[in-house]
Amino acid sequence: MSPFYYVLSMIFLFGTPLIIFAMKYIAAAYEARAKGAADDAYRQLAQRSAQSQSESAASLAGIQTDVAQIAARLTAVEKILKAVE
């Protein structure tokens, strides 16, 4: 066997496991990066949801105040109408 083929076969023999481990490492790194991006997207969605919920609560409080004022005015109008009868 010539030295070239011997060295080539040794490179294949020892290089194959290194290539496999490198591919596994790259796949794990890619998966971690994708998971981090998904976590960031979920965090942003949760923040937007919390902000929307607080804005909705503030709007609801304003509407409840308006309804209470309208109910008070309606009571006053009913009182006046009963007095006129």
Summarize this entry quickly.
96% of the residues lie in helices and 0% in strands. The protein has 85 residues and is an all-alpha fold.
Helix and strand pattern? H
Fraction in helix: over 70%
The helix tally amounts to 1
> What fraction of the residues are assigned to beta strands by DSSP?
under 5%
Shape: rod-shaped
Measured between the Cα atoms of the first and last residue, the distance is 122 Å
Summed over residues and divided by their number, the pLDDT gives a mean of 93
Describe what this molecule looks like in 3D:
This protein has 85 residues and is an all-alpha fold. The protein contains one helix and no strands. The protein has one helix spanning 3-84.
Sum up the structure in keywords.
96% helix; mainly alpha
Layout of secondary structure:
Layout: H1 3-84
